[in-house]
Amino acid sequence: MAPSAWLRVDEWLAKHARNVLALLRAPLDDEGLTKLSAAVGQPLPPSLVEAYCAHDGAAGEHPTILGAVRVPRDALWVRHMSWLSSERAVGSMRYMREVSETWPPALLPIADDDAGNLIVIALDTGLVSAWDHEDGSTTRLADDLATWITQLADDMDARLVVAGSVEEGHDDALELLDAPPGPAAPPPVILPDRAARVFVEVLLEKKYAVLEKGADIEPLVAQLTIALSGNGSASRKRAVIALLEQSEAIEEIFVDDEKLEGLVEEIR
């Protein structure tokens, strides 16, 4: 049997977004589900039961998994909501029933934001919608929670979901990309003669030496590669200085041995 969408989500979070997983509350037990059903006054949709059996909402007011769910373009604000615990969901439902005579009795808020917007689930059909506090309009999000979370799990597997960065302070949320990130750039290839070439470049840049006109520095680079890789700081310095003094590519050296020795240690 294929793993449930919630299990797939949790496994992905454990690998890629531990901070998000840590904000999801422990599962609601059987007693909690019974209390929730009694509070709303009717049986719970199977997808809602499955959701709260995975996690009893999220701690605090963090978007957590809602930050990466699929939503219509005109309802992107849904991704800034926080998933309500069963207790807070009941409290929100009771509040809406009190302040609105037209609030449908089968409508349960399961997420909210600071502005008063809600994600609601129809207890009779399982339909998930976004409710706009300004005009009371709703935007369809998914046929049920199971479908919505399966889409999230599929997007995670497709590398469309990424964790927020620590640097930007969003490591407690997720982001849904328009396309998977491209392959990582290959690490730079460091050739064995890199230190020798850098040494010659710095030597000339600092004007510690000047080359013979039209000089070929490749033989010098090859010899410096060997000298710079030698063991022993003192012997390495002596070998490099000797090469510079004997090289046909070097016209003249303008600094003393002490500065050359310092450059050897700096480059290596």
Protein topology:
Blueprint lengths: L4 H12 L1 H6 L6 H11 L5 H9 L27 E2 L2 H14 L7 E6 L5 E5 L5 E4 L6 E5 L2 H13 L3 E3 L10 E3 L17 H12 L3 E3 L6 H11 L4 H14 L3 E4 L3 H11 L1
Antiparallel strand pairs: 1-2, 2-3, 3-4, 4-5, 6-7, 8-9
Helix pairs in contact: 1-6, 3-5, 7-8, 7-10, 8-9, 9-10
Please provide a written account of the structure.
The protein is an alpha+beta fold and 268 residues long. The chain folds into 2 domains: 5-176, 3-Layer(aba) Sandwich (SMI1/KNR4-like); 194-267, no CATH class. Helix content is 42%, strand content 13%. The strands form 3 sheets. Strands 1-2-3-4-5 form a 5-stranded antiparallel sheet. A two-stranded antiparallel ribbon has the order 6-7. Strands 8-9 form a two-stranded antiparallel sheet. A hairpin with a 5-residue loop joins strand 3 (118-122) and strand 4 (128-131). Helix 1 (5-16) crosses helix 6. The radius of gyration is 33 Å and the shape is rod-shaped. The model has no long low-confidence stretch (mean pLDDT 91).
